[in-house]
Amino acid sequence: MMPTEIAALVQELLDIDQVAPEDNFFDVGGNSILALALISEIRQRYGTTLPLIDVIRNPTPVGLAQLIARSRGGRTVNATTLMTEPEGGQ
């Protein structure tokens, strides 16, 4: 799961021109109702249900990608390099 995929999803959902991996969902036009729509899209596309509080606490594509990866038992995303690496930063 790459943050660029989540950024594209947010961009599509909010109908805006560009979302960077470090952009805050709420700062680029998101709100709590749209966050629920985002959660629904993530569930449909990735088979993972995120609690609303997790989206509020991790509102960037990088943060959301990390949550999705963890919930699926996968690899986490290094926010600095946007490269995947094993859980624990190795």
Helix content: 40-55%
Strand order in space, largest sheet: 1-2
Query: What is the overall pLDDT average?
Result: 86
Which stretches of 5+ consecutive residues score pLDDT under 50?
76-90
Bin the strand percentage: under 5%
- Intertermini distance: 17 Å
CATH-defined fold name: Non-ribosomal Peptide Synthetase Peptidyl Carrier Protein, Chain A
| Gyration radius, rounded | 12 Å
How many strands? 2
By secondary-structure content and strand pairing, the structural class works out as mainly alpha
Give the SSE order as H and E letters. HHHHEE
Shape: globular
How are the SSEs ordered, and which strands pair?
Blueprint: H1 3-14, H2 32-46, H3 52-57, H4 61-71, E1 76-77, E2 84-85
Antiparallel strand pairs: 1-2
Helix pairs in contact: 1-2, 1-4
Structure commentary:
Helix content is 49%, strand content 4%. The protein has helices spanning 3-14, 32-46, 52-57, 61-71, and strands at residues 76-77, 84-85. A two-stranded antiparallel ribbon has the order 1-2. Helix 1 (3-14) crosses helix 2 (32-46) and helix 1 crosses helix 4 (61-71). The model is unreliable at 76-90 (pLDDT under 50).
Short account of what is shown:
With 90 residues, the chain is mainly α.
Structure keywords:
mainly alpha, Non-ribosomal Peptide Synthetase Peptidyl Carrier Protein, Chain A, 4 helices, disordered C terminus, globular, 90 residues, 49% helix, two-stranded antiparallel sheet, 2 strands
